[in-house]
């Protein structure tokens, strides 16, 4: 023993476990719950409880680092999205304004089907999605919020503030097939100028119909003429209905009820791009957030009505939309849509900066919608564009022979072709894309970023050394509509430490679920499988939401992706090296 100034000092022995806990307590690094060894010999650790203790948190939509903590955004279709962050050796839930724990402000429609987390100008930006895939709305529009570690602030949201608010005192012409597609909402306390609110959005803020939205067509001194817009397209034949109404979406299949709107309900009117959905509530999803040239870029998705967009900001407050404003400027000709224009790219799926062309440019992947009955059908399947002087220039477009860099043209379908660029990654002087297809996921790359035919090559599928889906496995299913399709249908790409990782999206099986797969490559062409069965958890359908924290890689092992889900909560995994 030692003695100093009359005080007895005992030697301290710290065990390895205690030292690890002490270290984690200082760095807010989550402790490993369970450890797994990959087929390649790598070590992976599960570092969160399923769903962070809530089985409704079925996906980790995004992960991101900020001020020494790892943040996680969950997809929750029942209660609304949640946000969690590391603390000590575990996790704590981050409360939203006014103590809300779900849906930012208790809005269950804000579910984070997709999402983004990114640090910009010293604050953490969150891109939240509202709603799900489909031609039926079920959304209040995507939103962007920022966080400084203590306080939340709306950036693109209805919570930025209303231009007008009041209470509905009377309603007329708001029935199904009542001879008029519009309805009239009166607030007899108002004294507006004619058409003061034309082009704005009316949202219901109380009662059974809370969160419902309507397009404002015109107004008199005290009455708004509004149009319901719950269905994409439809050529203006959609009736505005105030009674409770049941909706169903054919694919992916989901059903929901819109609550009734009646006199006495409160309302708000919003105008401008700072409202939810950048002013267009059909911008349901935030698909990707990316930094480029000191600006924050954000892409939107699931806009079946007007087409997806990309917005950007240099300061976080003032935003501009890239040109063309919707769907890369590409539209089918269909009399069922506004101005007979059905958007080709309802989603812009990914953003990625790359210098493969010899200069640093921002690239975007987009969907190609089908268009049965169109007078001019530009064809389905993948679109890729590059941003030049704030304008999108197409480099892959299946309907344009000289831009058909993926090589399939209009023979491509979601069942057999290079249907959708699900992800993009810049890796070792190449731009890679992971492609979504029921005909099996593929990986392609370009060394030039050129629009010339033949500028893309296969790394997985096509004429590569690997079959579609990495392993060529067909989906095991009793559903005749999906028999002959493949098990691995999409790929989320992420470069880390001189290695490109590919998290597969596994198509849900009703016979023999095997779980999702994780692959890696050091050179972009030779792939090694890390796990073929989600480390034994067959409920996992996707590895998505990759991020780097404390110099290692984290990823969500998700029980849902896009249009499919399994019961149970998602988990976070870490590469332990």
How far the N terminus sits from the C terminus, by CA atoms, comes to 39 Å
Return Rg in Å. 25 Å
Structural class: mainly beta
The assigned CATH architecture of the domain at 164-270 is: Beta Barrel
Number of strands: 44
Q: Judging from the principal axes of the Cα atoms, what is the shape?
A: globular
CATH fold topology of the domain at 164-270 = Elongation Factor Tu (Ef-tu), domain 3
Figure out the total of helices: 2
Strand content: 35-45%
CATH class of the domain at 164-270: Mainly Beta
Name the quaternary structure: single chain
Report the uncertain regions: 1-25
Q: Largest sheet at a glance?
A: 7 strands, antiparallel
Q: Please estimate the helix content.
A: under 10%
- Mean pLDDT comes to 93
Spatial strand sequence of the major β-sheet: 13-21-16-17-18-15-14
Can you give a write-up of this model?
The chain has two helices and 44 strands. By secondary structure, it is mainly beta. It has a domain at 164-270: Beta Barrel (Elongation Factor Tu (Ef-tu), domain 3), CATH 2.40.30. The chain has a seven-stranded antiparallel sheet, with no helix packed on it. The two termini are 39 Å apart. Residues 1-25 have low confidence and may be disordered.
């Amino acid at each position: 023993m030692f003695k100093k100034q009359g005080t007895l000092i005992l030697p301290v022995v710290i065990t390895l476990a205690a030292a690890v806990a002490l270290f984690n307590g200082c760095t807010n690094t989550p402790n490993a719950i369970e450890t797994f060894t990959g087929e390649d010999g790598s070590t992976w650790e599960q570092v969160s409880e399923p769903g962070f203790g809530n089985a409704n948190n079925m996906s980790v939509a995004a992960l991101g680092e900020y001020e020494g903590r790892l943040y996680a955004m969950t997809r929750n279709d029942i209660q609304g999205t949640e946000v969690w962050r590391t603390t000590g050796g575990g996790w704590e839930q981050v409360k939203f304004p006014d103590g809300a724990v779900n849906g930012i402000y208790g809005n269950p429609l804000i579910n984070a089907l997709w999402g983004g987390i990114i640090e910009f100008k010293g604050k953490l930006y969150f891109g939240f999605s509202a709603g799900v895939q489909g031609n039926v709305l079920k959304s209040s529009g995507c939103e962007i919020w920022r966080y400084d570690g203590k306080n939340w602030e709306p950036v693109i949201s209805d919570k930025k503030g209303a231009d007008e608010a009041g209470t509905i005192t009377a309603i007329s012409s708001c029935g199904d097939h009542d001879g008029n597609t519009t309805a009239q909402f009166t607030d007899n306390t108002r004294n507006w100028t004619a058409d003061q609110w034309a082009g704005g959005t009316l949202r219901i803020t109380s009662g059974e119909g809370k969160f419902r939205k309507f397009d404002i067509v015109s107004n008199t001194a005290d009455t708004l003429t509004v149009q319901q817009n719950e269905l994409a397209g439809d050529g203006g034949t959609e009736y505005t209905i105030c009674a409770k109404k049941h909706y169903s979406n054919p694919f992916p299949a989901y059903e929901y009820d819109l609550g009734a709107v009646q006199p006495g309900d409160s309302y708000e009117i919003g105008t401008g791009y700072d409202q939810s959905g950048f002013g267009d509530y059909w911008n349901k999803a935030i698909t990707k957030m990316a930094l480029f040239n000191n600006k924050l870029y954000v892409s939107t998705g699931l806009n079946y009505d007007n087409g997806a967009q990309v917005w950007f900001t240099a300061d976080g407050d003032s935003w501009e939309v890239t040109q063309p404003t919707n769907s890369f400027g590409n539209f089918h000709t269909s009399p069922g849509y506004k101005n007979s224009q059905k958007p080709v790219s309802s989603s812009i799926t990914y953003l990625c900066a790359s210098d493969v062309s010899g200069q640093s440019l921002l690239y975007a992947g987009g969907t190609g919608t089908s268009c049965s009955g169109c007078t001019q059908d530009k064809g389905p399947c993948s679109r890729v564009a590059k941003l030049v002087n704030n304008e999108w220039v197409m480099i892959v477009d299946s309907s344009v022979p000289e831009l058909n860099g993926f090589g399939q043209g209009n023979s491509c379908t979601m069942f057999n072709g290079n249907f959708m660029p699900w992800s993009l990654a810049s890796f070792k002087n190449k731009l890679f894309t992971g492609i979504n297809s029921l005909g099996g996921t593929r990986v392609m790359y370009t060394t030039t970023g050129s629009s010339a035919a033949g500028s893309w090559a296969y790394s997985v599928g096509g004429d590569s050394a690997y079959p579609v889906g990495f392993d060529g496995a067909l989906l095991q299913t009793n559903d005749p509509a999906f028999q002959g399709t493949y098990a691995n249908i999409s790929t989320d790409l992420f470069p880390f430490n001189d290695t490109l990782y590919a998290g597969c999206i596994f198509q849900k099986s009703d016979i023999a679920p095997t779980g999702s797969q994780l692959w890696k490559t050091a050179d972009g062409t030779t792939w090694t499988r890390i796990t073929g069965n989600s480390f034994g958890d067959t409920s996992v359908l996707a590895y998505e939401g990759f991020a780097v924290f404390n110099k290692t890689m984290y990823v969500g092992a998700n029980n849902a992706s896009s249009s499919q889900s399994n019961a149970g909560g998602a988990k976070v995994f870490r590469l332990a090296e």
